Amino acid sequence: MEVFNTFFIAPFADMIGSPIFLLEVVIGGILAGIMYSLVALGFVLIYKASGVFNFAQGAMVLFAALTLVGLMEHSVPLVLAILVTLAVMIGCAYLIERWLLRPLVNQAQIILFMATIGLNFVFEGGGQIVWGSNVKKLDVGIPEKSFEVGGVLLNTFDLTAALVAAVLVGFLAIFFQKTSVGRALRAVADDHQAALAVGIPLKTIWVIVWSVAGFVALVAGIMWGGKAGVSFSLALIALKALPVLILGGFESVPGAIIGGLLIGIFEKVSEVYWGPAFGGAIEGWFAYMAALVFLMFRPQGLFGEKIIERV
Amino acid sequence: MKIRHLLLAAAGIVVGVTGVTEAKRAYADDLFFPVMVYRTGPYAPSGIPIANAIQDFVALINKRDGGIEGNRIVSEECETKYNTKVGVECYEKLKKKHGGAMFVNPNSTGLTYQLIPKAAVDKITILSSGYGRTAAADGRVFPWVFNFPSTYWSQASAFVNYVGQEIGGLDKLSGQHIAHVHHNSAYGKEANPTLQTLSKKYGFKLTLLAVDHPGQEQKATWLQVRRKRPDWVFMSGWGVMNQVAIKEANGIGYPMDKFVGNWWSGSDADVIPAGDGSIGYKSTNMHAAGTNYPVFKDIIKYVYGGDAAKAKANNVGEVLYNRMINTYTFATEAVRDAVKAAGGKRPNGDQVRAAFEGLNMTKERLAARGIGGFTWPLKVSCKNHEGDAPGVFIQQWDGKQWKLISDFIPAMSDVVRPMVEKAAAAYAKENNITPRSC
């Protein structure tokens, strides 16, 4: 009876008893989820355009943030540092296409996936060799002030992150749906050879998509680095993006956002209301569990494309 | 022609024999300090100052003193990435090098747990100074493990003692509310039993809040802190968890002078990302920060050739750098005693262990080694490997540097020691160990 009360009565009674706190937890989850979405977007871009799960996305976030903060430590002004970092990420995209993807055209997806594992180590190691492994403070001028609205605590940094994510999603949605480059990206994702046959320049497309993923990594790096400092741990935030991708679908930009929000809310609500029953720190594995349960009912995720193959 | 060849051959033999003898002499006298550290990976910001300090200290002893009692220290670094499995490989790789390790400092609680049974077989002393298995303070069950100057449990009790001091006495703890925000690992949970015992004894409310590895997202934890409004928050964190926790605490407006980290949650890397938001944050420590002690002047002079800027860039004076200077001063003194016991030669494992067990770091000895006033004196014994003076200092971040703001605060050994002995007895029973009599 006590177990029943702990898991099925007490948490809901607590929610009803303190609706303002529940609202605060949900909003906290939404704001955390947006931060996950920023990372998940990078995965989606690469997957959408090349069908490759980019294992190195977390390391790209780290590399971009390290480069930005490293430049700023050398007295490079913020805007110039961002532009130079963006140029570095575009340069990386070019090198990745030239040295990694081009030799592997038409190889099985697992081969490309393995190649991104190698790329992950290159970004992690390269970033630390060039910029060091010490934790660095990243201040891009986003205000960090807390304030209450109707008893709910909000933070200007979190709200800015939400705004940035919204703008980014809008930009990416237009880019994929309304531009010829976006349509070409989708065509390449469907079939490399067919895309080549109709005259889509595969090399250029890959450079573009990896550059955009590099840009998204930079944005994620700025937001996460501003929140927790820039250190190797940034590479681990990819782990937070995986349940988001499972839930939202690997090839959907809106899916990454909705998935992020759902995972964020689910994490926070489960941690606050059910965490004590498990000894706490359940949000990480609860998110994966929720994603796996979801997979049982909708394997392609919320917005993923249902693949039907003829036998 | 023949004479020339003969002369060359003779010269060659002389050079060869001399070289071999010299090498053998050097090999026979060297004192090997294996260095198991992590300069890469998620915990590198904490591992780098630790690694730099060990290398600098070894260089200082060799350059300034010509080694320990005339015996050169040889060190070799192995990158563990703060990964227990890799750390065990490092231990196996290094343990017999250069005539055998004098002692090992695993720099990881998880790794210490793994090495405890191995080191006893290999007759290598483990020094887990301020970390590792708390029960190892009972030297009757753990003869090869030393965890002076304080264990996690003693540290937690000293924190409660500090709270008592701040609020006007331990009798006023009743009605207080303390939250323990901890890393969800063996290390992070170490303080929980002590806090629970003290909660019952003194009547304060205790809330335990675990944070998942690596701790980049802690919104749920700090929303609970905001809701429960504890009077004090004690933190056992590591790596990025500390940095995020300080920012989140600041974000919910939690008073930073009521937020106290343990000594692995109070380094320079922990407070820098939060900027001014971390001003007022406190933590326990076992020594001072900064370079205002003779040993650091010597490091700058002998290791950095007087280049203070270069020394600063290599973390000299930072909390975790100083932690290792403290640890290795104690270890070097133990090895010095062992070398003396071995008649000036390289001591064997038993002699090193006996020296650690008989280590008496008096006020005068600390001053002689350049750390007078930097830490507190202590004496290790066969029964008590934690030393006879467990406790903490409290330090506070002022926005630019850590400053000690308290005198020595003793642990509640009357509560902690029986817990240690109980845990050690349970370990002995589980592992069929017959405790020594001391």
Question: What's the short version?
Answer:
The complex is a heterodimer of chains A (311) and B (438). Chain A is mainly α.
Give a verbal description of the structure:
- The complex is a heterodimer of chains A (311) and B (438).
- Chain A has 311 residues and is an all-alpha fold.
- Chain A has one domain: ABC transporter involved in vitamin B12 uptake, BtuC, CATH 1.10.3470.
- Chain A contains 13 helices and 2 strands.
- Chain A has a two-stranded antiparallel sheet with strand order 1-2.
- The termini of chain A are far apart.
- Chain B folds into 2 domains: 11-150 and 290-389, Rossmann fold (3-Layer(aba) Sandwich), CATH 3.40.50; 153-285, Rossmann fold, CATH 3.40.50.2300.
- In chain B, 47% of the residues lie in helices and 14% in strands.
- In chain B, strands 6, 7, 8, 9, 10, 13, 14 and 15 form an 8-stranded mixed β-sheet that branches. Chain B has a 3-stranded parallel β-sheet with strand order 3-4-5, with helices on both faces.
- Mean pLDDT of chain B is 93; it is low at 20-24.
- The interface between A and B is large, with 44 and 37 residues.
Structural topology:
The complex is a heterodimer of chains A (311) and B (438).
Chain A (H helix, E strand, L loop, with lengths): L1 H16 L1 H32 L6 H17 L4 H24 L7 H23 L14 E4 L2 E4 H23 L1 H11 L1 H6 L4 H27 L9 H11 L4 H21 L1 H4 L4 H15 L14
Antiparallel strand pairs in A: 1-2
Chain B lengths: L1 H28 L1 E7 L6 H22 L7 E7 L4 H11 L8 E2 L4 H14 L2 E3 L17 E2 L5 H16 L9 E7 L2 H4 L2 H11 L2 E7 L7 H10 L3 E5 L3 H12 L7 E3 L6 H4 L10 E4 L8 H10 L4 H6 L5 H23 L7 H9 L2 E2 L1 H6 L9 E2 L11 E7 L4 E3 L4 E2 L2 H18 L8
Parallel strand pairs in B: 1-2, 3-4, 4-5, 6-7, 6-8, 8-9, 9-10
Antiparallel strand pairs in B: 10-13, 11-12, 13-14, 13-15
Helix pairs in contact in B: 2-11, 2-13, 3-4, 5-7, 13-14
